[in-house]
Amino acid sequence: VIEVNAETDFVGKNEKFVDFVKGVAATVAANKPADLEALMACKYNGTDLTVEQQQQEMVLVIGENIKVRRFAIFTEGVSVPYIHAGGKIGVLVEFKLGDASFATNDDFKKYGRDVAMQVAAASPVSATRESVDPAVVEHEMSIYKAQAAESGKPENIQEKIATGRMEKFYKENCLTEQAFVKNPDQSVNEYTAEVAKALGTTIEIVSFTRFMLGE
Questions:
Q1: Are 39 and 27 in contact (CB under 8 A)?
Q2: What is the DSSP string of 121-134?
Q3: Are strands 89-97 and 66-71 parallel, antiparallel or unpaired?
Q4: What is residue 86's predicted lDDT score, i.e. its pLDDT?
Q5: What pLDDT, on a 0 to 100 scale, did the predictor assign at position 8?
Q6: Per-residue DSSP letters for 31-84?
Q7: Which of 11, 21, 115, 161 is at 20 to 30 A from 69, Cα to Cα?
């Protein structure tokens, strides 16, 4: 998933600009650069120009300031992309399959797209509760403990109140625990288990990247 910025929205519909973005994506896929600096030094999609030079060329051709801002790529597992809101939100989800051959299965592809759509719509902070930044957990828990203390209830009750609110935080903000947007009666974890059972394999949501234009 890649974010390329331009000064005006209409550039996003320009055929040359779209081709440039596709070329940058192909360059990322072929070279798997470690960061943006490395990407800009790569040869652009099989040409003699670097991505940096091709970007400068596009600025002259289109007449707008164009800049490759960031990108994300998963080099392991199975990746499922999704573009939302006319290109304003880009999502890439990484899955681990018990049998990698299911990556091309239509049911898995539908499931993968559903999960990517979930990320676009619900904006989770992490894939699982275990992968939430410890600093975020500490910050949230300190707030919940302070709120519980204001209740004047015994300390053991305060601890239960804070823990309960932390559980609610996980269910609202961790992708695998969120209510599935297409069926709020089940969590994304439950939907995943349902699809995995139907396919006869295992599915694990490993990670995701969510880019919102200009964020």
A1: yes
A2: HH--SBSSGGGS-H
A3: unpaired
A4: 76
A5: 66
A6: H--SSHHHHHHSBSTTSSSBHHHHHHHHHHHH-S-EEEEEE----SSEEEEEEE
A7: 115
